[in-house]
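Write out this protein's structure.
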Amino acid sequence: MQKPKAVIFDLDNTLGEAFHSPKHSILTRFEKVLPLVPTAIMTAASLGRIKNDVLVNLSPSFDPKSLALFTANAGQCYLWLEDTWTAQYGFSFSDEERDVIRKALEQSAAETGVLDDAPSYGDRFVDYEGYIAFTALGVGAPTEERKAWDPDGKKRMQLREVLMHKLPQFDVYIGGATSVDVTLKGINKSYGVQWYARHLGLEPSEMLYIGDALYEGGNDAVVIPTGIQTRPTSGPAETETIIDELLVTLTGTK
């Protein structure tokens, strides 16, 4: 691992299991990175979920000025300014665009049959303003069922291919273990990486991105063309090991 000058972490299936708070063991490690290098969380999640799942579980000495938050797959960005999380930019869908996307998702799911016999644990549509997620088993699905539903990604890839034809005016990516993400054209994690690099006065190649969906079609893979260093992870357990390695690289000590 090359020594980065800034680090970006994905959240779901990277710092924590999808739609779950990260464990104390990984948050302890994550917090050790913050004083050493500018750090960001770049996720599909909302600001509210980051606050509830991550920030409230950090120690009272945590300095929020050391952290940048990119929500809605980098459709929005927040920095801690004047004692509050302050939006630096933000994109959102129009009502008409939301209707078009929802109809295309419903039609594509029916045409591909990917939901045949799939259990439902709550709403399958999640609107994060700057992006819309379709999570096949619903937002309340147990972790083990999420992992078992599409372990090789073939169902999500099939759904994505159909959606890309129906929604050429948007970007469509695979996200998480059961999700397909629809974003505004060009407004994705690549945009976030480039914005953060400019904000810090760095080149993307001087930064490191850690995420679980760096494979082709994944919502993390869009960062690769920026030139940022990348490190794939299979989940939170491996991320703990990656952070341990990162801390050694940053401090020069084991």
